[in-house]
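Notes taken during the Thursday session

The instructor put the following on the board and asked us to keep it in front of us for the whole hour. The protein is Sulfate adenylyltransferase subunit 2. We were told not to look anything up and to reason only from what is written here. First, the residues (304 in total):
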Amino acid sequence: MQRCDYLLSQLDVLEAESIQIIREVAAEFERPVLLFSGGKDSIVMLRLAQKAFWPAPIPFPVMHVDTGHNFPEVIEFRDRRVAELGLRLVVASVQESIDQGRVVEETGRRASRNRLQTTTLLDAIEEHQFDAAFGGARRDEEKARAKERVVSFRDEFGQWDPKNQRPELWNLYNTRIRRGEHVRVFPISNWTELDIWDYVRREALELPPIYFAHTRRVFERDGMLLADISYANRGDDEPVFEATVRYRTVGDASCTGAVKSAAAGLDEVIEEIAATRITERGQTRADDRASEAAMEDRKKEGYF
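Then, after some discussion, the predicted structure tokens were revealed:
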């Protein structure tokens, strides 16, 4: 009898784990949805979902919680990628939530629509009766996310309680919920930012161009470089200048900072990421730098 030894790479192991999670949730829940922003993590999630069900199509829709303050390059990429795959896109609009009086827009120099996404997301989950939402959160991003389980329970109000987490032993996941409850599922919990970029290179995945070095008009606020856009509420003491930058993460442009970088290709970005000791959110998200509890507060409210 011939014996064969198979050695899997780290990416192979991570991919297999993620695919198994996606398949199990798709089998256990009635109406899953994949949160897709057009960012690198959700692009990887989309590829994993493709592989999980190939050659069949992805059996659930994708949803983007749109603040209305997104980078145009990312929205263009989102729409094009969804069309290429023939997926159903659900757009949950923060602007509609504001117009309907569901939320009140912040004012002032540091106003952002990021926190307002909570109500918009929960309303969309209720409207479409989604019972499981796939998210691209990773445990290396921020301390609060390191407290998450892979299948993270949300109560009937959409709230997350870190002290009431269900145990997860090995790869055994508790998928039982009551009517009105739902779960957030994080198949790439055990991935790092560097793993994501390595996978993007291995799979030859296309990303929005703002992930690579380009020239942009920016201004400095709280040690971060923010794009010169109309809704950034730039003050007279915040002069605009041109810089060669790229983005490590994408989101609401009013609070997502760029980093100075000359990394114009995948290899250069991976080399840059491998050398950094600052998390992407810590370096580029103004709303998370406000306090160590900022992310956890929003998670408890129900968004992340």
